[in-house]
Each structure stands twice: as C-alpha cells, then as structure tokens.
Write a structure and sequence with these properties.
Blueprint lengths: L1 E6 L3 H10 L8 E7 L4 E2 L4 H6 L8 E2 L7 E5 L2 E5 L4 E4 L3 E4 L2 E4 L3 E3 L7 H4 L6 H12 L6 E5 L3 H13 L4 E5 L11 H13 L3 E3 L4 E5 L2 E4 L2 E4 L2 E4 L3 E3 L1 H4 L18 E2 L2 E6 L12 H19 L15 E6 L3 E6 L2 E5 H18 L1
Parallel strand pairs: 1-2, 1-9, 2-5, 9-20, 11-12, 11-17, 12-13
Antiparallel strand pairs: 3-4, 6-7, 7-8, 10-18, 14-15, 15-16, 19-20, 21-22, 22-23
Helix pairs in contact: 1-8
C-alpha cells in the first residue's frame, strides 16, 4: 500500500483533500493527514479571535472523514528526504511514498533583540489564544502596540478597537503609509479610519529592540502593556532546516510542478513555498488544486505538462471591524462597506464548500 502523507491541515492541505477525496485516490494509496491540532482553522480570521470578537469554535471545522484518509494528531519535528520519513514527536519515524509539506509559517522577527520573547503573535492557533488572553485581560486605558502595518496588523488593530475601545492602540509601520503593498487610495483610507477613531499610526518606524513592557522605536523607549508582532513571516522551522535551496525567509524553491528539485515525490504548499506572490490562503488553495492534479497524473503514469497554468489570484480583501473594509480586486481599489461584505461572503462560501 502506497502512502500519501500530508503535513498540515491548512488551506493548501484542505484543498488537496477536497480534490482527492473520496473518489480520486487509487485503491492502493492510503492518505495520512498529520497536524498538531485536531481541527482545520481559518487562519485568515485569527486577528478576530485574538481581539476577542469571535469565539474559537466559529473559525474552525473538523477534518474530512473518508475511508482513504487517516488523521494523526502529532507534532512534526523533522523530515528526512533521503530515508523518506517524517519524525513525529509521539509516533517516531513515519514513512511516506509521496509527501506534501504544508506546515505554514512563523513570525519573522528580523533579528530584533527581545521581539521573540516579549511580543504576542497570531501565526498559530496556540499563539493566537495566548494573545487573546493577554489583550482581553488588560485593565482599562492600557496601552497596546501592534508592530507591522500590513494586512494582519491593520485587521487586528481595527478589530481590537471594536472589542476594547477603552484601550490605547498604536500601530507601528516602517513605510510612509500602512498597506503599502496595495494602493495609495487604500492606505489613505485606512489611515484616516484609524485617525478618526483615535488609533495612533506611527509611520516610518524602526523597531530596534523589545524588552518586557518596553518598545524601542529608533532606539527611543516607549512603554506598553502589551506588544503584538505582525511584522512579517518566515517558513516553519522544520522547513527551514531542510537541506534544499531556500530563499531568505526559508521558503523552498520548487519545480514547475510544485515539488522539490530532485525529489519529485515531495511537494510544498502554502507559506513554506517560494512563489512569485505574497503568501495568502487563496494562493495556497490554487497551488493545492495543481498539486492534486499532478499527483493524479503521476499515480496514473500519465505525462506531465512542461508548465502548469499560471496561477491567477482574484485580489485581496481586508476588514476594518465588522462594518468597514478595503480591497484590491482586478487592480481596482475598494473601500467602505462593500469590500467588508465581500470578505464575509468569501468566508461563508468557504465554510459551505468545506462542510
């Protein structure tokens, strides 16, 4: 019996399972999903969980339950590409014939001293739960710093304002304007939205050090009661430790068929893959579609195309609380209630399609 092992039940892993199960797996192939948590979580909604505006149960679903699939609840500690084994914390070495690595990402602290020790995050369900507890136990008028003015930082700042309007929130961003990767129109809209609500935006910041309760911006100390880090990501440590070609964030370079060069039976999906796009759930799902197709062709001994179709992303949607939002769709900047409704609709559709 051949073994397909999927590491991580995130957006990419879930899409692959959706495409393969229950009828597109050969009878001599057994599928194993290995994840440290027993649910699929909607990571795009972790900002709301951390802020306290949605409960844990609203942003998760159970994994598929089909006879070709077996779920193993365990931690991945290493991968041996030569021996074709995965090292698990509780189950030891686990062999595979085909492997899909979708272990996600971690915070990238950019070598800022103290950032890893004295800040909270939202890159995993475990860290998000800790962040929720810390933020929602703060006394009235506490000061909260959010480091990073990208999508995650903007969304958690706005959601925290709705959850805890009694807090003093400051968002630190390296650029001249938040959301610099989208558009000037969106950046101005979001900064004005924050200004109208008394949320401080510190542009052109440079966080040089973090101590307990103290943030250093351009080496100037500022006291805070809680500091949340959303200033970039890097690949999971297990992936960073692989002896293969990676970029500066530890993401793996792949062939046109999404496998590691020299290991056509090992694929990487999602935040651990080096791709010409910013990592998103949408990208992981599109990549998952193509990996499922490649797998089926290889199982059936069919020739692979030299190139797969170019992945076309639909755009980016973000929220400013429950009533406002922003988006860049088909190169068109959207602000206000419409993009917020669109984002809610996307989440609803995702739940329906995967239920």
């Amino acid at each position: 019996m051949r073994k397909l092992v999927i590491l991580g039940g995130g957006y990419g892993g879930m899409r692959i399972l959706q495409r393969l199960l229950p009828n597109n797996v050969p009878k001599d192939v057994k599928v194993y999903l290995i994840d440290k948590v027993p649910y699929h979580f909607f990571k795009t909604e972790f900002y709301a969980l951390a802020a306290g505006t949605v409960p844990d149960v609203d942003i998760r679903m159970t994994f598929p339950n089909h006879s070709p699939l077996e779920f193993i609840n365990d931690w991945v500690e290493g991968i041996d590409l030569e021996k074709q084994t995965v090292q698990l914390k509780n189950n030891g070495d686990f062999s595979y014939d085909h492997l899909i690595i979708g272990l996600g990402c971690e915070n990238n602290y950019h070598n800022v001293p103290g950032a890893d020790k004295y800040t909270y995050g939202i890159q995993s369900i475990e860290t998000t739960r800790k962040t929720y507890k810390a933020l929602n136990n703060l006394p009235i008028d506490s000061k909260v710093a959010i480091i990073g003015g990208g999508l995650s930082g903007v969304e958690i700042a706005s959601e925290l304002y709705e959850s805890r309007p009694d807090l003093n929130i400051a968002l630190f961003d390296r650029g001249d304007m938040v959301l610099s990767s989208l558009s000037v129109k969106i950046g101005k809209y979001v900064q004005n939205w924050f200004k109208e609500r008394g949320i401080a935006v510190v542009n052109n910041s440079n966080i040089t050090r973090v101590e307990e309760g103290i943030l250093y911006n351009h080496d100037e100390p500022i006291e805070f009661d809680a500091i949340v880090w959303t200033a970039g990501i890097r690949a999971n440590k297990v992936v960073r430790d692989l002896p293969v070609k990676k970029d500066k964030k530890g993401c793996v370079y792949l062939t046109p068929h999404h496998n590691i060069p020299g290991y056509e039976n090992v694929y990487v999906v999602g935040d651990c893959a080096h791709l010409p796009y910013a990592p998103t759930a949408q990208l992981a799902e599109a990549q998952g579609d193509q990996i499922a197709s490649v797998l089926q062709k290889r199982w059936n001994n069919e020739p692979l195309p030299e190139e797969l179709p170019t992945i076309k992303l639909k755009g980016t949607l973000g929220s400013l609380g429950k009533k406002h939002g922003f988006g860049l769709v088909a190169d068109r900047s959207l602000t206000g209630k419409v993009p917020r409704l669109l984002k809610s609709g996307v989440l609803w559709m995702y739940k329906v399609q995967n239920s």
